Amino acid sequence: MPTDTKVAQDQWERYAYCRDEGGHLEYVRKSRMCEDFFAGLQWDPAIAAELKEQRRPALTINKILGTMSSIFGEQIDLRQEIAYKAAFGAPAGGSDILTKTFRHISGKNQLDWLRSEMFADGCITSRGYVDARMNFDRSLTGDVVISSRNPRNTIPDPDAHEYDPDKWGDVIHTSWMSADDIAVLYSEAKAKELRNRGASAWAFGFDSLDNFRDRFAGDSQLGSVNVAHGDDPTSRMIRVIDRQHRVLSRIKYFVNTRSGDRKEIPGSWDQNKINLFLAQNQVLAVDEVPGRKIQWTVTADDVVLHDKASPYKHFTIVPFFPHFRYGRTIGLVENLIDLQELLNKTTSQELHVVNTMANSGWKVKTGSLKNLTMDELEMTGARTGIVLELDDTKDAEKIQPNQIPQGLDRLSMKAENYIKSVSGRGDAQMGMTRADVSADQIEANNAFGDVSLLKCMDNLRRTDWILARNVRDLVQEFYTDPRILRITNNQLTGEQQEIKINWPDPTTGEIQDDLSMGDYDIEVISQPAKQTLEDSQFEQAAYLKEKLGVPIPDEFLIENSRLINKTALVQGIKAAREGPEAQAQQKIQMLGGQLELANLKADISKTEADAVLKRSKAASELQSMQGQPGEAEAAQQEMLLEQQKHEQKMTQDKEKHDQEMALAVEKARLDAQIKAQQAKEDARLKRAQAILTMKQAAEKPAAGGQEKKAA
To answer: Are residues 173 and 309 in the same domain?
Structure first.
């Protein structure tokens, strides 16, 4: 099968340049050292062997592991939410749908755990990566898949000096694959060409970067692997170089003729879809200008596995750097290595001095030792209760040990304090504050310790923004078919919400919630620590409910409490609230409230009628006192008012009686329903007891017969 050797050769040369001249080998050396110190492998094997031969201790007091675990805990508690805001051309409600779509994607990909892995990689090795791309294994329409990437196998553009990969020229990811992997991902013909190749048959040789690679088997050198084992199609012995790089091309844009804004047209859109979008947006036009597109090239040895234009707008790689200075990445472990070595060496030296005080050695006259040989004395000379048989006691003398150098013990304390000050993780952040320190001081110390992590957390927010941007563009370009997504609104109760996107309206035929239209801005929202947030929420809610009488639901209090099995408790409360007895009680309360309202209305009407009658009487008396005519009219008006008052009272009494009768009937019906249910339960219990009694009675004769037989 012909191979494009020129493309493979160019790919290898770029890879070799980025690896050797671009400083990636130096990064790999540094990252391995940081990983070893984090794991507690902090002594050079040659030095440790030499100290062991000299019978000197080589202690490892791993302060880095505890310090970094504290920082990882801060990141785990500090979760961040992504929110999209509608900009130009976005449909109504599109921002909320897009935000929920991102939540659906992050939930399916377990993004919280991936972020924690990426954060740990960045803090330890100074670089962390995740990869966001489309995957069509489970669905023909495709899903956004986010996965983690080993930073030692990912090589950024060595000539770049920006944080955002959109400013990089290329990015390379290397991996080892088996022939079967290549057959599935690319083609069987290319996999067949790469099968059964020995190490000497490879055109470009083994890569010095990955002679030792990260895997469950540990650091085993590939060159020591049996060649016959390399012929196994499931053995991952084929070096694959995956490179995404930018090339000059002509790019089509949508241009707003009013504002002048432009947006790149997705590469997957054909001319029909472009024309339809132009018809829906009259202010847009199409412009084609030279630009830089992403080319995706994958090679293995001299075989080109893939070399086409990338379907994506961005590189799939999303980086995280705890500290970034114009292309230089700085982690949190590398500055603690020298301090950790100082602590290990000074503590080991202290132990060595203590050991020499107990076994400082002996001065023995030649031939005077009777019961031991010199070798035996060397081995047992420090044992308690040792007995030396000598010709003369003056023939042996205990060597006086060196005294502990002044300040040696303080040097180890200084090393430990240096680790705390450099990392910014003191006793308060590690949970080792003294008992006599006030709560306010502990809180102030914690706040001071968090300041040292603000830059790392800010860069993590920047990474979240880049990831949200890439996912937004993937959704707008590939989520163009009708979909039904489900998201969990409440982790406690498991309540889910169904979201429809790109769904046609059956009446108008228009596409509802079309996420491919419009621009969306991104906002990264930081949330406080989850446990602290729960405690604060619970305390405030309990105070508002108990002290101020605010009607806060019980479910909210339970959700923010530290109770075990909160889900079952909330479901039990809902079941009790929605049961027949609870519903009956609610109906009784509702009818009682209606009756009270009717009584109140009757009292108000009666009061108003009395007031009108009193005013009428006062007017009649006033007219009679003044001797004016109209006494007959006043008497007639008074009679009419009395009649109206009587009729109104009769109406109110009737309404009140009807309400009381309705309440009594409903209460009687509900009581009968409850009694019937209780009777059913009692009958069921009696039947169960009767069956149990019959079984016991049937077993007694059998037992009696067995006893007689035994007698």
So the answer is: yes
